[in-house]
Design goal:
about 160 residues; alpha+beta; Alpha-D-Glucose-1,6-Bisphosphate, Chain A, domain 4; seven-stranded antiparallel beta sheet; 3 helices; globular
């Protein structure tokens, strides 16, 4: 395994207030509406958004050919509303017991624990969102999944902002 940690960094401008985008990251009901790549739903999002608080999320996919669930757990390391959110992420089973990424088909080099850093700032009435996922390499399926999720986040934020105006 290389000594260098791999990471993906994605920056987006969201046409919504910083408070709304923060809520979309921290309110389980809103989070479930956008999180995950296309074709995935989020039936479970348990989030104690406090420093040291736990999170457990399930992404699910149903198709005529198969159904699949992926569970993730982690701990919030930094919660600074509405500008910065940092949490760890590990694959787990439905009970929240951490499992190896390799048991879910990930490469041997994929770490057991990754870290997600979300930074939000207000720019001209919109929200600049920068997300770094330490341990997920640029150009991987994980990075692609984040981009798809952020497309959904932007569309959902626009819908919510339009409803609120």
């Amino acid at each position: 395994m290389s000594e260098e940690t791999e990471w993906v960094r994605i920056e987006r401008e969201i046409d919504a207030s910083i408070d709304l985008v923060w809520q979309m990251w921290t309110d389980p009901a809103l989070f479930k509406q956008w999180y995950g790549p296309n074709g995935m739903s989020v039936p479970t999002a348990e989030m104690d958004v406090t420093v040291g608080g736990a999170r457990k999320v399930c992404m699910a996919m149903q198709s005529p050919e198969r159904s699949m669930e992926m569970w993730f757990t982690g701990v919030y390391k930094e919660v600074s509303a509405p500008g910065r959110l940092v949490y760890t992420e590990s694959m787990c089973d439905a009970a929240g017991t951490i499992i190896s990424p390799q048991s879910m088909g990930m490469p041997d080099t994929f770490p057991d624990i990754t870290e997600v850093i979300v930074e939000l700032s207000e720019v001209d009435g919109k929200t600049r969102m920068v997300m770094v996922h330490v341990g997920v390499a640029e150009g991987t399926a994980g990075a692609g999944g984040w981009n798809q999720a952020f497309d959904k986040l932007a569309a959902f934020a626009q819908t919510l902002a339009d409803e609120g105006s």
